[in-house]
Amino acid sequence: MFFIHGIHRIFNLDSEANKKRIYHSSMRSQPQFDEIGAWSELKLEILKKYAVAYSTILSAQTNVTFFHVYIDAFAGSGQHISRAKRELVSGSPLNALDVEPRFREFHLVDIASEKIDNLRELIGPRKDVFLYQGDCNEILLKDVFPTVRYDQYRRGLCILDPYGLHLDWNVISTAGHMRSLDVFLNFPVQDMNRNVFWRNPEGVDQSQIRRMNLFWGDESWRKIAYETKWNLFGQPEKEPNEVIAEAYRQRLKEVAGFAYVPEPLPMENSKGAIVYYLFFASQNKAAEKIARQIFDKSRKRRS
Prior knowledge:
The protein starts with a strand and ends with a helix. By secondary structure, it is of the alpha/beta class. It has 10 helices and 12 strands. Strands 1-8-7-4-9-10-12-11 form an 8-stranded mixed β-sheet, with helices on both faces. Strands 2-3-5-6 form a 4-stranded mixed β-sheet. It has a single domain (3-193, 242-302), classed as Rossmann fold (3-Layer(aba) Sandwich). The protein has helices at residues 38-59, 92-97, 113-123, 136-144, 169-178, 189-195, 206-216, 221-225, 241-254, 285-302; strands at residues 3-6, 21-23, 32-36, 67-72, 79-82, 88-90, 105-110, 129-133, 154-160, 181-187, 265-268, 274-281.
């Protein structure tokens, strides 16, 4: 039995240069699969490693019984096309479903109905899987987060992996103040650089400014992104990516209320350009230690 929740809202997903859509032909429909690079495959590996450690630790607790769940806000179709191998690879929801010991529940969200349909077919009938079609910024706050209350000994691993600036700060801040969630977050600096952090900030379209404000939570990013340097034409120079990422790390701690936010992992494409930063945030020191170890091993492997 599946639980399928729908919220109908028009939501514009911008295309990304680092992704292209692959259409898989079938008699029933044509689900979309993302073609992913090595950096995305590394991210899937990181998420799976942490999910195993997380579920193992919470399942082993004897002094109190935790009810731990898996949440994926941009779940996708469940599978991707590996650019290097030219074959299907499992996405984060399917990897989480394979984790032992098992999560108690799975909450999978996507804006695209065809992706939810494909997930339903791949997973099959399971009472512990909840599928939601619609805008995760609404669904998480209304339907998912209220089921993971700290005082009810419920805990969750939440994956916030948007395609770009499609995540509202309100979701991130709520996750932090709930105290019950460990979060992996995609900080989409490539989208920011392409659409917001221009050499001439006054030329940026207001719709892009609104997207940035929603993601950051306010307009304080302006002073961070254009703080000190000016070019020969009297225009502000953008600060390096790592400066902006560090400011966001501090914001996750000081504003969203996460106690532990290690240095994020820059996810680079084949040309060495940073596509996004992978953040981890938690209220638990042991959780940070595990995430930091996984990040450090990934850094060493790439160097």
